[in-house]
Design a protein that fits this description.
- It is a single chain.
- By secondary structure, the protein is an alpha/beta fold.
- 45% of the residues lie in helices and 11% in strands.
- It has 13 helices and eight strands.
- Helix 6 runs antiparallel to helix 7.
- The longest helix is centred in the middle third of the chain and has 23 residues, at 208-230.
Amino acid sequence: MFDFTFHNPTRILFGKGAIARIREYIPQGARVLMTYGGGSIKRNGVYEQVQDALKDWQVWEYGGIEPNPRYETLMPAVELVRREGIDFLLAVGGGSVLDGTKFIAAAVPFEGEPWDILEKRAPVHAAVPLGAVLTLPGTGSEMNGYAVISHSAKRAKLAFGSPLVYPRFSALDPETTFSLPPRQTANGIVDTFVHVMEQYLTYPVDAPLQDRMAEAILLTLIEQAPRVMQNPTDYDARANIMWCATVALCGIVGVGVPQDWATHAIGHEITALYDIDHARTLAIVLPAVMQAKREAKRAKILQYAERVWDIREGDEEARIDAAIQRTREFFESVGIPTRLSAYGIGREAIPAIVSQLREHGMTALGEHGDITPEVAGSILELCL
């Protein structure tokens, strides 16, 4: 196991009625900006719950943060916060709203062009404090210091991270997810699954606890996915999936172990160019990465095959093939295709995706740093 330092400052408020409890953790007298997405919170009762919790504070609102939150959408909120002297942010929605709000938090005190935080990896020295009310599990943004932001004009989708943008608290009430469309529920399940795989499916470093925590999340997702897809108001299934998504990317699974993240890097470029849902790009790319890097990942794929899918018969090659196939089948079982062709994207798209990777400095991806743009091109061939 590698050496590590682990600290996670986010307080989780989990369960029925969690939204009402946020009033205990917002500073008295704070000037609060409530951010949200397309307005679903006004149809499912979440908006009213948050408004009731915030009745003792002065509150501004900023809606319209889209999936794959855009720099162009977020900058007016940055100006609003600066202009009004707002000193606390409350993100209400899914991972995109949380990510966008983290960028707002970092951008407000930033001196210079805020996009440099992502494009030039400029350090974040200060940020407006924030909290969250989660309504769409999957990204894990509710308990980490990372965010992914898109720039329409630049056709870029880039990530940044800072300990200063961890939410002070996150309220997770599974009942807020009852009204999610099947597409969003499935996206969250796949997003969570791939987050775990990026930290797990690398190479052994004698970290059995981390391995078994990762496998526990994967097994729970496989078990709970059919329940929630068949019965969207199954509270326990919703709760289990919601907690899986949070634990998958709160940092604990990835301590002391090598991590990959090539699937995410390639997937981000597909989203930036073709506007395909983030989770759906992951479902396309992960099986191809497993296939292309089957030698480097051999030991862990075989472990995954046995412990997660109970694949024990056949030689090693057959078990690896079966594990990759079972992964595809799981994604497809929740209605998510695993081929670019399902979106009308063919071989002609590969040069543009590879060019974007090169432009954004994604030239040494994977746990070994050996996924060059050329290797990424061969992985994309396997995605067709």
